[in-house]
Batch of 3 targets.
Target 1
Amino acid sequence: MNHFDLVEGEGGGELYCEGVPLSRIAEAVGTPVYVYSTATLERHYTVLRDALVGAGLKDPLIAYAVKANSNVAVLRTLGNLGAGADTVSEGEIRRALAAGIPGERIVFSGVGKTEGEIAFALAHGVAEINVEAEPELHLVNRVAQRLGTRAEVAIRVNPDVEAGGHAKISTGKADNKFGVSLSEAERLYANAANMAGVRPVGVACHIGSQITDLAPMEAAFGKMRGLVERIRKEGLTVERLDLGGGLGVPYFNQPTPPTPADYAAMIGRVTQGLDIRFAFEPGRMIAANAGVLLARVILVHERPEGRRFLVIDAAMNDLLRPAMYDAYHDIRPVKPRPGEPLPYDVVGPICETGDTFTRDRVLPPLEAGDLVAFMTAGAYGAAMSSEYNSRLLVPEVLVKGDQFAVVRPRPTYDDMLAREAPAPWL
């Protein structure tokens, strides 16, 4: 569910975000621009939280995956509801802290943590560091001892279960770079228990993103339960089980994914009687349908052989997912025109053939100056944006009711150029 609806008025229908017409935002901020709905962010978090608690998972830590949408206003919106943060860099930890999320609700993941990042995480009291390799475990131990502290760690396991909507977002197979094998995990956990600088508190897994079938998750979670039970049989304490994220969202061209209630019920069934504290790292399922990318049509180019190009002012640097993952986004006119729908190739201005959002997409008739909204763009949209082709970074707007605020302004060209300086000999 989202809060982007077509509202009928005297001049016809118009797409709104909550109580704000998208055309008002375009007029005030310009295009392209990301627009986020507070009501959708809040609803998706609370629906997941209530489902987990309802399934008997007491006091779960829902550590929102910052990489999905790292805007500080988005993080603060979720943090105010009790969300934590799943982070993969010092920068993401800093963003979570800036949003008011305390260290005890922050998880630090990722396969390439540097010594400086580990020290920063420990200095700010993160809840746990998810260790993804044996050399990393020794590095965390050394850094913690140097700082005179003891790091709480979870061993991230790669359960060798294939899942995810695209090969590039599948993270749970044996040939993926993430985590340690099940055969390594027990030994590393036992070793960690004997280290002066670390205290093993749990195990973790995350098998992929945009998963629309609960079966691979159930298989992975069953393996994780077995791991917890084996470690406990060795006389070691396992306090936490981090089951990651990955539950898919509807991109309109895919089967409807399982509901949070179905997801929670499956977890409750697989882990019944385990007596452990759970952590989760959802990102896309909270943020995706809470945002749209608003763009304006520059021109319609019709070729004699029949191709019709809809050239818009958004490009692959603003929304990379279609070029990188062949991802689908529903495209809706902000003010639909009457008339017969037509097939369009929707493209941006960047000098790459890959700057193509979709081909032969049947849309209502569109003309230069019309506004269009790319739906389900709140996750991995602005967070992956860049200044490729020296295009200005896309701004972000947060809506609440009938109010909106720019939460990341569009820089000026002077801002962009001021970050660079000529070498002394130039």
Target 2
Amino acid sequence: MKHILQVLRFEYLGIIKSKAFIITTVLFLVLIIGMAFLPGLILSIQSSGDEKKTETDKQVIAVVDKAYKDENTVKSEFAKSFEGYKVLISTEDNDTLSDKVDKQDYAFAVVIDEPLAITYITKNNSLFASQTARVAETVKGIYQTTSFDKLGVPAEISAKIISSEPKLSTVTTGTDQTKNYLSAYILMMMIYMAVILYGQLVAQSVVSEKNTRTMEMLITCAKPSHLMFGKVFGSGLAGITQLAVIVCTAVVSMRFVSMDSLPAELREMMNFPVDTALYALLFFVLGYFIYSFLLGAFASFASRSEDLNTLISPVMLVIVAVFMIVVIAINSGSVDSTLMIVCSYIPFSAPVAMFARAALSDVSIIEIIISVVIQLVTIYLLGMLASAIYRVGVLMYGKVPKPSAVIKLLSDQHKTNKAIRASKKGE
């Protein structure tokens, strides 16, 4: 244990004192603080711009009413729906309207051909544009108002009927995904990025030591298992330190700088539930150890830095595949599908899959404990396997060995160790 702690301390101090670590941490902090100020800054700019904007500065919407022949009603309804625009009742034909829209004289044009038939003319129809739906709702409102008027219903009553909305109260007996979705998504992204970032940190450290031949000296002073566990624990502790600094800065910034400037709904979503945050920390640690041992073992076979990406690419593909499966499941609303349940117990996918289920579904504590135990056992077994591979790989230079050669070397090493233990017992 003493040797592991010594390696851990050496690795941890080496990482947090490195220029790359300090620079990336500072950049993240500056970015987070800047993003915290951004919403308030944007809103203040917009509000000052709106105050200065006159009626002549507003973009024009041209509306041609061929169906209702009621200029006042049509104009007032469109003015309510599009407050930032100037509504112009026009009699121009479609070609003229299209030409003016193309020249951007009009923001867009609407031709009401029949009571419920509309021609919408725009220059660029964005995938995320909401104008078409608002135009349709506006014309629908005009149709309802005029229909009520023909039946003799007063305008005040018809407007009240049309604008009435039911009051909905939701009682959730399990997990409310509407409140946890954004926080779970952000934390899952952090788990994914952190596992990749800090796992690669372990791999790069192994390659760097092998290139400088430092590893040959280290392996004569401590057991490979001590070196591997100390290196993984040290890098992980450095990663947690960096994450803690970043998260604390983000929390303080969002609480005291920009939270008041955000809409109430977004403020509610940004309040990370405590249990979700704790699950994120737990599964980040488990995922980090699983993939760090794998990446460290693979990296021990790299004789040059250029070989590292090739060697660890299978592990990175697994991480990406797991992340994509979980993202698709979340977006499709199938967090508790059979695939996700299976992934929750497979060690290589459990850190992300079980976290997503714990955050967005009603998962029992027994299921979470079983998943965690499976991951802990896997971490121990991978740690021992990685140490054995590390012992073989650190002294191998030149061409990257084939998997069959690695298996043979591990088998020979196991037989040698077994024979040594047997001889010691005989003595």
Target 3
Amino acid sequence: MIKTDILIVGAGPVGLFTVFEAGLLKMRCHLVDSLGQAGGQLTEIYPKKPIYDIPGYPSILAGDLVDQLMAQIEPFKPGFTLGERAEGIERLENNHFRLTTNRGTQIEAPVICIAGGLGVFEPRKPPLENLERFEDKGVEYIIRDPEVYRDKRVVLAGGGDSALDWTIFLADVAKEVTLIHRRKGFRGAPDSVEKVFQLAEQGRIDLMTDAQAIGLGGNGHLANVRIKHKEKGELTKDTDHFIPLFGLSPKLGPIADWGLNINKNAIEVDTFDYSTNVPGIFAVGDINTYPGKLKLILCGFHEATLMCQSAFKIINPDKKISFKYTTVNGVNAF
């Protein structure tokens, strides 16, 4: 049996930062994640993707941000149970929780912090008849290593931030980049949209709006994408890779059965401290919902900070919080 002060479900960036804030208040943390390594989406889905909205970093690769967070929490010696999914919880006589993973690992803590991002992810796939035949043979839904596409022909599809950001990034990597989107307008950040149109005007990418993929061709490996264009009709684009970036379908998984108030696949919380309707269980990051919610990493950092203040009172009911700025004597002073 593993015992800790705060059991964190999810070892993504917000879960990792929770360890730091808890450590400042002398609280021990143990993290559980179904992935085999810490970092969540940043490590699993886009480790080489640049992130632009982390304070103090004009730009930082997702994987590098995880490395920095791990270095930041190293002094607090958190525990990790990776590659195991959080399954059931039960309330013990001492009012603590006991969580059991799918592999039978048990962890006891007075506080649970759910920082599981959007839960378990599955890519949203376009309705192409022969799509599965080319999966891992030229069709990918996640870009893990951009070097795979160096000097290759790449067709991306989508209109959100991920499609725009990867189009911009791969313009400097791939031999040929095509972005297709079924509408003229995009859902991504205005700055990214502007950059994509600039790349198209410069002839560095081929941008097709009012267009969508209708079929794939090739013998063993993907060789082309058939596209239906509103003005040009049907055409065939030779390519080495087709990457449909239509987002991921999140599923809460076993957490949905923990008695929490769920609204549209997210956990409802009180913005005072991001507590759920179950005393002792909190939810921070993309997995929670409240009026005005923004799904940004930096917002999750803020939520984790306030959550730890209330967690301290549960764990140490007879103690008064003595919160000091880290600039006073450094992290070791805590």
